[in-house]
């Protein structure tokens, strides 16, 4: 077959591989399509290199490790909660059993998944079924070994083999997964509709700055070690080599002792040579440190670097950080929702016919007083009580049930409610003040 015939055959094949008559064109960029076509059914080695760099940064630098731990902790704080517009006991029981089997009520499991999402930019979860056709486990897979089985246009070749786990050492696929069997949560992919695009770790764009910062830190220590100590210059006029050697040996023999006197029988002197007086000039280190934290989700001030930072600026940075936390919670909760929907389908329940929402209990990393104050203000605005409980991170049905049980058990005369009033501009920083009184 000639070169021209081969090229024309490739063009015809690309047209025949169009999966839908309603969609035309390519989802991938030309560079991405070429990469997929010539990847020879292998993994994305660029993504693997990025993940390896991030893991090395996490192991060698306490700042990076603390960033990953802090973000994962804030994302999973409070755990998962099922919210329903209309209480459905069966959905509630299925969720409780689902959460128990998959250990989604375990803080370590949630933090491990969140940490993997932050470090790798992806969260591949394999849904493992038991003999009762229930989702029994949610296993987090290493994303650098997962290969989406897609066409050059960015769509799956076959949903029955949507993903594969590839062993780069043997060059073979270890296992294949159907689309229902694996959920891939991606953080900031270049193109969400391009199914071949992986997500990006939070710190992937800061790797070069991190290398320079580490090099500068090492150079700073070496410079201080060699140039900061004070030195002594010994001068012996007209001394022979033998006399100079004897003097040097006698002086250096006692260098570990506190020397207060030097005795010379020739004209000379001992003068102190001060160390480098510019050790405090570390503007280059500060610049690299600022550049590093500019690309991280966590503000520098929250990591303890507060020199020259005003409190109001830190508050603005905290709000921006909370928005990042909310986005991560949405991505993580979406992945668990897919697993729960699969479980409902296996139990004969149509998830589209039910109104429920899985989210994290604490949407913002606020203090308890701030959360309560926000809920009281929403109550003063006339929002439904069930929505207020959901805003605080509680299941409204559980709260009302507990309230009814406690009223029957403990309080024969339950309190009807309180009156909430809002005074605009009567709190610090121009915020509104909240007061509660009995009606």
Automatic annotation (TrEMBL):
Q: Specify residue ranges for compositional bias: Basic and acidic residues.
A: 400-411
User: Where along the chain is composition biased (Polar residues)?
Assistant: 415-424
Segments carrying the region annotation (Disordered) are: 400-439
Question: What's the protein called, per UniProt?
Answer: Phage portal protein, lambda family
| Origin species | Neisseria musculi
